[in-house]
Design a protein that fits this description.
34% of the residues lie in helices and 13% in strands. It contains four helices and four strands. It starts with a helix and ends with a helix. The protein has helices at 2-16, 21-32, 46-65, 144-148; strands at 83-90, 95-102, 123-124, 130-131. α2 (21-32) crosses α3. β3 and β4 form a beta hairpin. The chain is of the alpha+beta class and 152 residues long.
Length: 152
């Protein structure tokens, strides 16, 4: 039994190595939805389900990506672009710069979604970018200098 279990684990490991961890659950649900459970479930069945999820996600983004920034948008943070431009303060350079974060809405690819860091007290500038009220409210700087220092 030990060799069979090791073989099964190795088979599943190889079959799943190209699917990101956060997509395993949705791919599993998709692949098992219409599976005939009188037969064994093959490990390789998750890859087509994962690819179908990616294709659906891409199609959603293409349909949402053509929207204008006005009342027809669904997401107030990213205006259905999938990405939120936020002014970020860099303590190393002592300056503000604009960085783009993945939104939580459906316009963002699943693998790039992040927690939106926009707060209610923030305002938008004339280009639609979110600006925090102070350096303390700014998201953590992601520049190379700050990362190397251990994060400012």
């Amino acid at each position: 039994m030990g060799n069979e279990l090791a073989f099964a684990v190795q088979t599943w490991t190889v079959a799943l190595e190209d699917i990101p961890d956060h997509m395993l659950g949705p791919a599993w649900k998709r692949a098992t939805k219409e599976h005939d459970w009188s037969k064994p479930f093959p490990a390789h069945a998750l890859m087509p389900a994962y690819k179908a999820l990616l294709l659906e996600d891409r199609e959603k983004r293409q349909t949402l990506g053509g929207r204008r920034r006005d009342d027809t948008t669904r997401c107030r943070y990213c205006d259905d672009t999938g990405y939120v431009p936020i002014a970020t303060y860099c303590p190393t350079g002592n300056e503000w710069y604009y960085s783009v974060y993945g939104c939580q809405c459906a316009a963002t690819p699943i693998s790039q979604r992040q927690a939106v860091q926009v707060r209610d007290c923030w305002e938008r500038d004339d280009r639609g970018r979110w600006v925090p009220g102070s350096a303390q409210e700014s998201p953590r700087c992601r520049c190379g200098f700050c990362r190397n220092k251990g994060g400012a």
